[in-house]
């Protein structure tokens, strides 16, 4: 194991066993800070969120995903294998963005602005992914599409993304 050069400036979600766990851990940190603003750990939490949710970090995440998609296939599709973290990790990123956008905190709004390009890209990817599902995945794993749809739906409602909402609802009804 070795860290990628400049990981602390070019990547936002690291420090856990996998990417989606780093994203959901970031969401938990935001949620706890929002829910318990007077916690003894508030300054440390804000420090860590500032370090991970900086603009260069989120730009690095987006560059990573764009490069990954381009290496696999320039046109994402539901049957595409190897696009790591689709749909589960993408949905967690959207849940994080929904939480940041809904929180009336100055720093949270700055973090949300930094996350926005990646969230938009992932929302667009999920809008293409969900309608192409042949059948739902209903096992008790992270591949469960109901959980990913639920997380992404929170985002669609907060940012008023009618296209993503329509994609999720149509796929869920199908």
Instruction: Give me the secondary-structure category.
Output: mainly alpha
What is the β-strand count? 0
Tell me the number of helical segments per DSSP (H or I, 4 or more residues long). Answer: 8
- N-C termini distance: 43 Å
Shape: globular
Gyration radius over CA: 16 Å
Q: Which percent bin holds the helix content?
A: 55-70%
Protein model, in words:
It is a single chain. It is globular, with a radius of gyration of 16 Å. The chain contains 8 helices and no strands. With 174 residues, it is an all-alpha fold. Helix 6 crosses helix 8. Residues 78-82 have low confidence and may be disordered.
In short:
This protein has helices at residues 7-10, 19-35, 42-52, 55-72, 88-102, 106-129, 145-159, 162-173. With 174 residues, it is mainly alpha-helical.
Blueprint of the fold:
Layout: H1 7-10, H2 19-35, H3 42-52, H4 55-72, H5 88-102, H6 106-129, H7 145-159, H8 162-173
Keyword list:
single chain; mainly alpha; 174 residues
């Amino acid at each position: 194991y070795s860290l990628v050069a400049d990981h602390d400036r070019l990547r936002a979600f690291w420090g856990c066993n996998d990417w989606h766990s780093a994203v959901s851990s970031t969401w938990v940190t935001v949620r706890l800070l929002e829910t318990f603003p007077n916690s003894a750990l508030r300054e440390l939490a804000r420090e860590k969120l500032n370090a991970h949710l900086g603009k260069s970090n989120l730009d690095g995440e987006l560059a990573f995903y764009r490069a990954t998609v381009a290496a696999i296939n320039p046109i994402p599709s539901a049957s595409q294998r190897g696009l790591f973290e689709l749909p589960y990790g993408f949905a967690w990123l959207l849940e994080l963005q929904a939480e940041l956008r809904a929180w009336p905190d100055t720093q949270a709004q700055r973090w949300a602005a930094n996350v926005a390009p990646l969230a938009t890209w992932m929302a667009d990817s999920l809008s293409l992914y969900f309608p192409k599902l042949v059948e739902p995945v209903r096992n008790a794993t992270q591949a469960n599409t109901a959980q990913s749809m639920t997380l992404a739906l929170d985002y669609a409602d907060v940012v008023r993304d009618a296209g993503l909402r329509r994609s999720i609802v149509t796929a869920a009804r199908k």
